[in-house]
């Protein structure tokens, strides 16, 4: 009896030793990949940016073109993210609370910006709103500039970041169902009260997570914006475009300095994402218990 | 407040959920909508509440046609099978919700709301849980909170959709007796949906038996049990046995049976397949000669024929109904 127990324990131990070895190898490999592909570039960006000291670093950031690029980027993000929030919320609401023909088609189409190359997205807008484009004549008659101006940059950013909020909310709202909303209506709440007191608190963390992802993508968007912006320094250059221009001019220190600014913004967003994700997973495990 | 349902029909796609339903529910009555799943009982309840719109027909509360009224203007209390408590609110806030959502002119002060909420929580005997969240409560507690929440806005009608369906057997029995007592106290016109005939018999003043979108029978529990209007009602309201005779068959309930160890005229010979003591009664499963369908007989546990009875022995049975 005791020898059987011992044998079993020994073989379990052997299995565990094997597991431990395999586990350590896997963890080491994961860290290695992480270090080479993520940490090393980070280090290079920062070390290149600071190669000539903090003086040149800050000069590159405080240069008028850099500041106008930062302003333009924040403006484009500030317009496109709220619009996508409203759109994502509306789309998720329709999909999860109503039955209508073409619903699955709509859900598929929401994902379109993920599968279309951003460059093509930019080109679509040039073909529509450019001087030679479909609406080009009408727009120039009315003196409206979309391509090579802020509206084009905002449109391109909206297109590329459109799915984030909706994608995050649709499964969450479908899982939660409509009963709490029905209960609220039966208790006399009007549409706005129902949304504010019942729906929004239930999807809050999913919404924040979607907005954070959307913001991250909008900040860094290069391809689509590059096509529609026209690269006019001090006017239609966003931060990623500004980095590229500086780099092409062999102004490496300035390029990496501006890049590290983007990096800091990205890290802040990453922390926000981590925080909202933790709250969201708690919410989901609660829902699963129901 | 009475409810009058006139010629209500509803279909979802090709599925006919309700077919020309007519039903009067009297003021202060507790009525059960009883039927198998898919019979349309929940759809009918949701139409009364205004959560679904009928394709045709109308609903009147106390003579006033409310078909065009929005859910929030109907003033009905509704209890869901899965409680539908607001998960991010405490028990107190859940119960206070309906009062706080009232238009500013009608909204009571927070002090009055607090008094009212504590009064309701005391009524459902859960005052000590006011600060908890729904996820911290058991199923039975959640359902009582859901009931308190529905009653907070002083509805004229209370609708309950399978209110005990998600609870375990013991809690379910306690809660339905408690609901029947509560209904006697507050005397609110109530309609509840169930697929459990025992529950309907125990709680309701009247039972509406439904099947495939139509009403099969309406009547007091004793009436539908003793005088079922159709084979469907007979089968649905309790276990039934079928005994084949020359030129047809008869139906009888497990307890409507006479047993004997000796062969008697008009009794049918049978082999004992199983003996199950179930507390006050004992169930004997029998295979009657010449038919494959088994018959279940239920007799009091100290019945003479049970003494020393073993599987495989012979018994003689006779349905009481054919006496």
From TrEMBL, chain A:
Subcellular location: Cell inner membrane
Membrane-crossing segments per the record: 25-46, 66-93, 105-126, 146-166, 207-232, 252-272
GO-annotated cellular components: plasma membrane
Pfam families: BPD_transp_1 (PF00528)
Membrane topology designation: Multi-pass membrane protein
Annotated GO MF terms: ABC-type sulfate transporter activity
Domain ABC transmembrane type-1: 70-273
InterPro entries: CysW_permease (IPR011866), MetI-like (IPR000515), MetI-like_sf (IPR035906), Sulph_transpt2 (IPR005667)
Principal subcellular localisation of the protein: membrane
Sorted UniProt keywords: Cell inner membrane, Cell membrane, Membrane, Sulfate transport, Transmembrane, Transmembrane helix, Transport
Top-level taxon in the UniProt lineage: Bacteria
UniProt subunit comment: The complex is composed of two ATP-binding proteins (CysA), two transmembrane proteins (CysT and CysW) and a solute-binding protein (CysP).
Reported function: Part of the ABC transporter complex CysAWTP (TC 3.A.1.6.1) involved in sulfate/thiosulfate import. Probably responsible for the translocation of the substrate across the membrane.
Protein name: Sulfate transport system permease protein CysW
Organism per entry: Azotobacter vinelandii (strain DJ / ATCC BAA-1303)
Taxonomic lineage: Bacteria, Pseudomonadati, Pseudomonadota, Gammaproteobacteria, Pseudomonadales
Gene this chain is encoded by: cysW
From TrEMBL, chain B:
GO cellular component, one term: ATP-binding cassette (ABC) transporter complex
Annotated SMART domains: AAA (SM00382)
Gene3D superfamilies: P-loop containing nucleotide triphosphate hydrolases
Example of a GO MF term: ABC-type sulfate transporter activity
Keywords, in A-Z order: ATP-binding, Cell membrane, Membrane, Nucleotide-binding, Sulfate transport, Translocase, Transport
Entry-linked CDD domains: ABC_CysA_sulfate_importer
Pfam families according to UniProt: ABC_tran, TOBE_3
Domain ABC transporter: 3-237
InterPro entries for this protein: AAA+_ATPase (IPR003593), ABC_SmlMolc_Importer (IPR050093), ABC_transporter-like_ATP-bd (IPR003439), ABC_transporter-like_CS (IPR017871), Mo/tungstate-bd_C_term_dom (IPR008995), P-loop_NTPase (IPR027417), Sulph_transpt1 (IPR005666), TOBE-like (IPR024765)
Entry protein name: Sulfate ABC transporter
Taxonomy of the source species: Bacteria, Pseudomonadati, Pseudomonadota, Gammaproteobacteria, Pseudomonadales
């Amino acid at each position: 009896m005791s020898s059987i127990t011992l044998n079993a324990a020994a073989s379990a131990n052997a299995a565990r030793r094997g597991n431990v070895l395999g586990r350590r190898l896997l963890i080491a490999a994961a860290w290695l990949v992480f270090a080479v592909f993520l940490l090393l570039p980070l280090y290079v960006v920062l070390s290149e940016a600071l190669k000539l000291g903090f003086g040149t670093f800050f000069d590159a950031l405080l240069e008028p073109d850099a500041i106008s690029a930062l302003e333009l980027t924040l403006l484009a993000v500030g317009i496109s993210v709220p619009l996508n929030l409203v759109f994502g919320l509306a789309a998720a609401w329709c999909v999860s609370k109503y039955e209508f023909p073409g619903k699955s088609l709509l859900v598929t189409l929401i994902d379109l910006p993920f599968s279309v190359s951003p460059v093509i997205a930019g080109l679509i807008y040039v073909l529509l709103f450019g001087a030679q484009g479909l609406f080009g004549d009408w727009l120039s008659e009315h003196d409206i500039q979309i391509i090579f101006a802020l509206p084009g940059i905002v449109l391109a950013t909206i297109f590329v970041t459109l799915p984030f909020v909706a994608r995050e909310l649709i499964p969450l709202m479908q899982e939660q169902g409509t009963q709490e909303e029905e209960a609220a209506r039966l208790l006399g709440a009007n549409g706005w009260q129902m949304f504010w007191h019942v729906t929004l608190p239930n999807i809050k963390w999913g919404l924040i997570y979607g907005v954070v992802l959307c913001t991250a993508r909008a900040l860094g968007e290069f391809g689509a914006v590059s096509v529609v912006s026209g690269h006019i320094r001090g006017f239609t250059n966003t931060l990623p475009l500004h980095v590229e221009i500086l780099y092409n001019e062999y102004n490496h220190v300035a390029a990496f300095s501006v890049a590290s600014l983007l990096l800091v913004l990205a890290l802040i967003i990453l922390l926000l994402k981590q925080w909202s994700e933790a709250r969201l997973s708690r919410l989901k495990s609660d829902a699963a218990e129901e | 407040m009475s409810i009058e349902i006139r010629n209500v029909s509803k279909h979802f796609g090709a599925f006919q959920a309700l077919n020309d339903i007519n039903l009067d529910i009297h003021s202060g009555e507790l009525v059960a909508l009883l039927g198998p799943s898919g019979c349309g009982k929940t759809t009918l309840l949701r139409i009364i509440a205004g959560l679904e719109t009928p394709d045709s027909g109308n609903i009147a509360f106390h003579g006033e046609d409310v078909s065009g009224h929005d859910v929030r203007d109907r003033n009905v209390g509704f209890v869901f099978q899965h409680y539908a408590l607001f998960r991010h609110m405490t028990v107190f806030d859940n119960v206070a919700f309906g009062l706080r959502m009232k238009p500013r002119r009608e909204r009571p002060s927070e002090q009055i709301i607090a008094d009212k909420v504590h009064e309701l929580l005391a009524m459902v005997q859960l005052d000590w849980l006011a600060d908890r969240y729904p996820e911290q409560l058991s199923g039975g507690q959640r359902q009582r909170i859901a009931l308190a929440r529905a009653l907070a806005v002083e509805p004229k009608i209370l609708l309950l959709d399978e209110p005990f369906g998600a609870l375990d057997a013991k809690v379910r029995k306690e809660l339905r007796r408690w609901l029947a007592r509560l209904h006697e106290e507050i005397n609110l016109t109530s309609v509840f949906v169930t697929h459990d005939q025992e529950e309907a018999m125990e709680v309701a003043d009247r039972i509406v038996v439904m099947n495939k979108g139509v009403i099969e029978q309406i009547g007091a529990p004793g009436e539908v049990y003793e005088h079922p209007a159709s084979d469907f009602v007979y089968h649905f309201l309790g276990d039934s046995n079928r005994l084949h005779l020359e030129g047809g068959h008869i139906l009888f309930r497990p307890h409507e049976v006479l047993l004997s160890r000796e062969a008697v005229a008009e009794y049918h010979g049978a082999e004992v397949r199983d003996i199950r003591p179930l507390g006050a009664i004992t169930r004997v499963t029998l295979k009657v000669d010449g038919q494959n369908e088994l018959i279940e007989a239920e007799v009091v546990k100290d019945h003479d024929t049970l003494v020393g009875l073993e599987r495989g022995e012979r018994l003689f049975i006779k349905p009481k109904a054919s006496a």
